[in-house]
Design brief:
repeat, mainly beta, single chain, 6-stranded mixed β-sheet, disulfide bond, 7-stranded antiparallel β-sheet, FN3_dom, transmembrane
Length: about 1050
């Protein structure tokens, strides 16, 4: 009955946990927006209508907010009956400007929701920020005018020449969307006064005039000039779907050819990109994949003379939700978790709203990154919650409702919570059941979080009601954790239990520090690194080990440094030599895996003074595919003409170098791969030569975006199997799941006794194989075994649980008796023992051994690699025979068997049923051996001798030809017949049979002279049945089948018993029965 009630409670809990929340998700339609306000641009004094239509259970009240402040209705601002906002005249200037962000708030009895932001823009255009300047150029060269204006919406730029619109009838003249005017191959008629005109829907403005003067160069040949970029591309930030212009204007003689490429070697989008004019790259409808570093290359035709200019394009992306919160139904005192993940450029900021207002965080309501967690739920938490993700490009919202279920007669909280550390990532939590309503508890929930710091994320695990202990094994090393528990019944949850804190053990560092390398002279390298953060150090760093060698020499030198060091100067090095360096860190547990080798070339020895290495600051990852490089110019007297930046992924060739201007102090590297290590090199350029080099390494983080760069947890190992090896060991094996990984895969196996209360009994085994033997276990104990996988600094979930019980202590049912003498009869009896003493002996078993080998002058025909045994003994103890010692009886036995067989065939042909008994009963008295043709036969006891018969088989399947090595037909009672060695009958064939013993009896099997394996089991006092007439005539089917199975088993050298199987060590010339 108790089991039935428990199952019923579990079904209630399943309904409570699964169905009710899903019903809240699928049935929640109490309040939502049908139409939300959108961005709009109007001219001053024009009327404006912002639409907002909500759906839900009436009555619905709609209010409006501007820049977060609630609006009041007036003559100029009116709330329409459908919820829309009407502005009679849009104002642009002064404090009464109507421009800004608008939102509508919809409310009914279930709660309130806020709409997305709508931007109202009053069209405007400012005076010119950049005016065109006068130019004086030679005939045939390039002229370029620029202008810039601030306009909303963006203005359209045109140019005037001498107060007339400039006609673009020739390919020599190009006007870019950004307002730049380019005139290639300037002619004398291009001279004049140029003016820029900017126009939008609200206004039109004109710039100052700029005069273009053209100098006549004459008719002589022009000198050759190297290519020079006079207007290169600039770093740009563009909104999604906008048009981007990367300008590139170059001069030279002959006229250079301009080409474009990407620094990450990816192809340029040929569908949205085009070349405007002589070499300007225009990308329309830009998307995130267009972000990256673009290279403009100006090359002199038919030569290798070229120059490069680079620019970084960053595409801004409005927020979009990757994971939306879901509506939930939770009992009072329970816990609700709302998850919200968004992506965008820049990364969106996430806030939470409750009924349209920002959530007030406290000790019970917390936000971890983007998750909202509400613990110890009360009726005041029943509301509509919204996740708001916003950046400078826009905002997006998603709503979910929390329904609080009231219940009475709740159980009391679990008590006596106790935590004990198992390892660096696992803590055992044990508790006692609640005092009140403990029989109605259907599940427990374990809540845990880091005890130090603010806004730490709280985790929850739900477990069944059939245990009072649980292992939390996904913790971080060297951290304090706090734990509490809640008990659940079908209609509610208990209060929180008392909190307990426990500290995990230290572990080896997860990663090494990133190195920064700089040379101050040709014979030294300054090595710097940052201390590891707590999450990576996994404990207190005890020491660092810096290793280095030259690229041409495999000899590695190492230096160990104390934990407070973050830099080291390597001196007495060779100039102009590539050195490889790496570092490793250690806690008290041990050393971590050393980092990969980082290369650095020491400067050349020269009397010329070159620029020192730039002061490279710590690299900063902007996201999973971009790195921000910052530096400062080193003080010195050498004038810096520019910088050269190089980078490459670990194990990959270097990307093309990037030329930077002398005034640049930062650069963004885009288009990188997530979770990869990159090395960045920077040096200054001067007229006298390249300066000293600064190197630094950095690993890009993993991408949060599930849509673009999923970082999935590796799957758990599968096909987990366990087998008990002994009373103290279990063999565990598994299969590696199918997933791609370039890193070394390792495994952790966990072995836990079922019903654990002692943490010291838990075993963790680390291995790189797919099997492990877990030793040192308790006998006759049931264990729970699981395996998890580690790859690419990620860990899989634990595999499915398998259970295995170790063998009982002293459970062997076989023993090896050695140094026995052939030809003797031994008496065997067995007793069991435990800690209290020895038990009674079993009944006595007689073990009769046959004579040893008697070979004269010749080696035996069959040899077993040194074995001197030619004795056959049956496991039932009735008979044993030395096959090679019976050569003197072969002829007589064969003649007798042939005669009896002929007689039997005659009887069968005449159709007469006759009984032919050729039974010879042999008695064993006082250990004397019988005489006659069956010498070597011994009976185990008297009552079997009374019923034994020697039967002559006449059917073909009842005879065995033992590979020509024996002329005997064996039944379970001894040798029955011999066959003529010189003449084989066609029906003397072997056939494998399964042997089924019809009576339980003491068994002994001898597999070698001097050694006996004894198998024993309970004795059943039952006599064999008397044979029927048919059995006398044709032979006992069961006995003959057993004899054939035994003879067949002897040929294969294996004896099978009811307890198992073992190797006999024979070569096929001895027969044993089962």
């Amino acid at each position: 009955m108790a089991i039935f009630k428990r199952k019923l409670y579990q079904l209630w809990f399943l309904f409570f946990v699964l169905f009710i929340p899903l019903s809240g998700v699928f049935c929640f339609s109490e309040l939502s927006f049908i139409i939300e306000p959108s961005d709009i641009t109007v001219i001053s004094k024009d009327p404006v209508v912002l639409d907002c239509v909500a759906h839900g259970q009436p009555p619905i009240i709609i209010r409006w907010l501007r820049n977060g402040v609630r609006l009041a209705e007036s003559e100029r601002l009116q709330f329409l009956s459908n919820g829309s906002l009407y502005i009679l005249e849009a104002r642009r200037d002064g404090e009464g400007s109507d421009g800004g962000f608008y939102q509508c708030l919809s409310q009914n009895k279930y709660g309130a929701i806020l709409s997305q932001r709508s931007r109202l823009t009053i069209a405007n255009i400012s005076p010119f920020v950049v005016q065109p300047v006068p130019l004086e150029v030679t005939e045939g060269s390039v002229a370029r005018f620029t202008c810039q204006v601030t306009s909303n919406p963006p203005a359209t730029i045109t140019w005037e020449l001498d107060q007339s619109t400039l006609l673009l009838e020739t390919d020599r003249i190009t006007v870019l969307p950004n307002g730049a005017l380019q005139i290639q191959n300037v002619q004398l008629e291009d001279a004049g006064k140029y003016r820029c005109v900017a126009t939008n829907i609200g206004n039109r403005v004109k710039s100052r005039k700029a005069t273009l003067s053209v100098i006549n160069q004459g008719s002589g040949p022009k000198p050759r000039q190297r290519p020079r970029i006079i207007a290169g591309p600039q770093n740009m930030t563009a909104s999604l779907h906008y048009t981007v212009v990367l300008e590139c204007v170059a001069t030279g003689n002959p006229r250079p050819i301009i080409s474009w490429s990407r620094a990450d070697s990816k192809p340029i989008d040929v569908f949205n990109a085009r070349v405007l004019g002589s070499g300007n790259l225009v990308i329309s409808d830009v998307k995130p994949q267009h972000s990256g570093v673009y290279l403009c290359r100006a090359t002199t035709p038919r030569t290798r003379n070229y120059t490069i200019a680079t620019a970084n394009l960053t595409v801004l992306e409005p927020p979009s939700l990757v994971e939306r919160p879901e509506s939930q139904t939770r009992p009072r005192a329970g816990t609700a978790r709302f998850v919200c993940q968004a992506q965008g450029v820049p990364l969106p900021r996430i806030t939470w709203l409750k009924n349209g207002e920002e959530v007030h965080l406290n000790g019970r309501i917390k936000m971890y990154n983007s998750k909202l967690v509400i613990t110890q739920i009360t009726t005041e938490d029943d509301a509509i919650y919204q996740c708001v993700a916003e950046n400078e490009q826009g905002s997006v919202l998603s709503l979910a409702r929390l329904i609080v279920v009231m219940s009475e007669d709740r159980p009391s909280a679990p008590r006596n919570i106790h935590a004990e550390t198992i390892s660096s990532s696992a803590i055992l939590l044990a508790w006692e059941r609640p005092i009140y309503n403990a029989d109605k508890v259907i599940a427990y929930s374990v809540h845990y979080m880091k005890a130090e710091g603010l806004n730490n994320e709280e985790y929850q695990v739900v477990i069944g009601n059939d245990t009072t202990s649980y292992i939390i094994d996904d913790l971080e090393p060297a951290w304090n954790y706090s734990f509490y528990m809640v008990a659940y019944m079908p209609m509610g949850a208990s209060r929180m239990s008392d909190q307990v804190c426990q500290h995990t053990l230290e572990d080896v560092p997860l990663r090494t520090p990133e190195l920064s390398l700089t040379s101050h002279s040709p014979t030294d390298i300054q090595v710097l690194w940052q201390p590891l953060p707590t999450k990576l150090s996994r404990g207190h760093i005890w020491a660092y080990r810096l290793s280095y060698r030259t690229a041409a020499d495999a000899t590695v030198l190492s230096v160990e440094l104390a934990q407070n060091n973050t830099q080291y100067l390597l001196g007495d090095l060779q100039p102009d030599t590539v050195y490889l360096l790496r570092i490793s860190a250690a806690t008290r547990v041990g050393w971590c895996e050393p980092s990969s080798w980082t290369s650095h070339r020491t400067p050349k020895t020269s009397s010329i003074k070159v620029p020192p290495a730039p002061l490279l600051q710590q690299l900063e990852p902007l996201n999973c595919t971009s790195i921000l490089v910052r530096w400062q110019a080193s003080p010195g007297s050498v004038v810096v003409q520019g910088y050269r930046l190089c980078y490459h992924e670990e194990g990959q060739p270097e990307q093309p170098s990037i030329q930077l201007q002398p005034e640049d102090t930062e650069y963004t590297i885009s288009g990188l791969n997530p979770r990869q290590k990159y090395q960045v090199k920077l040096l200054a350029l001067s007229l006298v030569g390249d300066g000293y080099q600064a190197d630094q390494t950095l690993s890009t983080p993993g991408c949060v975006s599930i849509r673009d760069h999923p970082v999935a947890q590796p799957p758990a190992p599968d096909h987990v199997r366990a087998l008990a090896n002994s009373s103290s060991a279990v063999y565990l094996r598994w299969s590696r799941p199918a997933f791609a990984s370039r890193k070394v895969v390792s495994y952790t196996a966990r072995c836990t006794p079922v019903g654990l209360m002692n943490v010291s009994a838990i075993r963790y085994i680390q291995t790189t194989n797919q099997n492990v033997v877990i030793q040192g276990l308790e006998p006759n104990t049931r264990y729970e075994l699981v395996v998890r996988l580690h790859a690419d600094q990620l860990s899989s979930p634990w595999s499915s649980v398998v259970h295995q019980r170790t063998l009982p202590a002293g459970s062997n049912t076989m023993v090896l008796l050695e140094r026995l003498e052939p030809g003797n009869v031994y008496l065997v009896k067995i007793s069991a023992s435990n800690l209290m003493g020895d038990g009674p002996f079993s009944t006595t078993v007689e073990l009769a051994l046959g004579p040893g080998p008697r070979h004269r002058g010749k080696s035996p025909r069959h040899s077993d690699s040194g074995s001197s045994s030619d004795t056959s003994v049956f496991s039932d103890g009735q008979y044993h025979m030395d096959q090679k010692s019976m050569t003197g009886l072969m002829v007589g036995v064969c003649i007798t068997l042939a005669c009896i067989a002929i007689c039997a065939l005659i009887l069968i042909n005449k159709g007469r049923s006759r009984k032919s008994s050729i039974c010879k009963i042999m008695d064993v008295v006082n250990g004397e051996r019988p005489h006659g043709p069956h010498a070597g036969l011994a009976l185990a006891n008297d009552h079997q001798a009374d019923n034994i018969e020697a039967l002559m088989p006449v059917m073909a399947q009842h005879f065995i030809d033992a590979k020509g090595g024996s002329n005997l037909v064996i039944s379970r009672t001894g040798p029955v017949n011999g066959s003529n060695r010189g003449k084989r009958w066609q029906f003397f064939k072997r056939e494998r049979r399964n042997t089924n013993t019809s009576q339980a009896e003491n068994r002994v099997c001898l597999y070698e002279v001097g050694k006996t394996v004894l198998c024993y089991e309970e004795k059943v006092d039952a006599l064999p049945l008397q044979p029927s007439s048919l059995q006398i005539l044709f032979g006992p089917l069961g006995g003959l089948q057993r004899s054939m199975g035994s003879s067949r088993g002897s040929s294969s050298g294996t004896t099978e018993t009811s307890e198992g199987s073992h190797e006999t060590g024979d070569s096929g010339h001895e027969s044993e029965n089962e």
